[in-house]
Amino acid sequence: MDNDNELNFLLDFKVNNEFENQELETTSKKSVLKFLSQIGVDTRFISFHQQKIYINNIRFSKFSKKKQEIFIKRFKEIAIIKSSLFQKIANKSSKTLSNSLNINDTILVPISSNLGKIAYILLEPYTRKYGVKLICFDEDEVNDIHINRVVSLLTLNQKAENILSDIFKGNGVVESLKSDDEKFIYPFINIDEKQLNDFISEYFFKLDESYEEKHDEIAISFMNFIECIIPQYKENILKSVKYLNK
Q1: What is the 8-class DSSP label of residue 115?
Q2: Which of 56, 82, 108 represents a domain boundary (last residue)?
Q3: What is the pLDDT, as a whole number, of residue 68?
Q4: By CB neighbour count within 10 A (0-12 exposed, 13-18 middle, 19+ buried), where does 5 fall?
Q5: How many domains does the chain contain in total?
Q6: Where does a domain end: 82, 113, 146?
Q7: Cα–Cα distance between 11 and 28 in angstroms, integer?
Q8: How many of the other CB atoms lie within 10 Å of CB of 183?
Q9: What is the DSSP string of 182-195?
Q10: By residue range, what is the domain housing residue 131?
């Protein structure tokens, strides 16, 4: 690598991202992504957030151990998160996001909770894949911004509980189907809360208080019982509902 190219890696570019502009980052997002691309990493399969790189898919990103070593020599201040649990979460989430996102969507992302921050991290690569724009907000301050999509933090557990709760109340499955608005994006709809809680505990250290919200006791009791018999029951419930919706 010649000296001119070496110097180019040190240029500090302005970060054009609403969320990360709120932070005083010592290394610009643009320079990090540029360097990753130049060493052969596919940045559509990594997330960059708060001086951390999260590997969403080690194979598709081509972010090999050798390339990680090269990157760390250049950007010692950037942490690389190569969690197999996060890759599982990202893989499951991508199946929903790839089918629900449109080119150049403007997406409102709630970031007041750790779950919201994970949603942002999962969506960040789609700013490069689909050219989406992420608008982040705290739940207490929603400004009048032109958006066409909104992130819902609904998890697989919550969706399964909602469906069972409607059934036990005599509303049937139809009511659960009506609640699915196409304006909303559900990055966690296929992800069990245990996986999310395990990742939050490891990397964010504190679970969200929202997990202590009231639940339908009958639905929860039934879910606890059936989980001992059919571990994949939540996924099966969603598949059944989707089939009935066709």
Answers
A1: H
A2: 82
A3: 96
A4: exposed
A5: 2
A6: 82
A7: 9
A8: 10
A9: TTEE-TTTTS-HHH
A10: 83-246
CA distance 231 to 140: 37
Cα–Cα separations (whole angstroms), residue 86 to 42, 58, 71, 94, 202: 18, 11, 20, 12, 11
User: Does residue 152 share a domain with residue 101?
Assistant: yes
Could you tell me if 138 and 187 lie in one domain?
yes
Closest-CA residue to 64 (of 45, 50, 78): 45
Least Cα distance to 114 among 198, 191, 47 occurs for 198
Question: What average pLDDT values come out for the chain (246 residues) when binned by 10 residues?
Answer: 37 34 61 96 96 96 96 95 96 93 94 91 96 81 72 88 68 53 88 92 66 55 58 64 61
3-class SS of residue 51:
coil
DSSP state of 131: -
Query: Whose structure tokens read 């469906």?
Result: 163
Instruction: Say yes or no: 44 and 89 in one domain.
Output: no
Amino acid 220 reads I
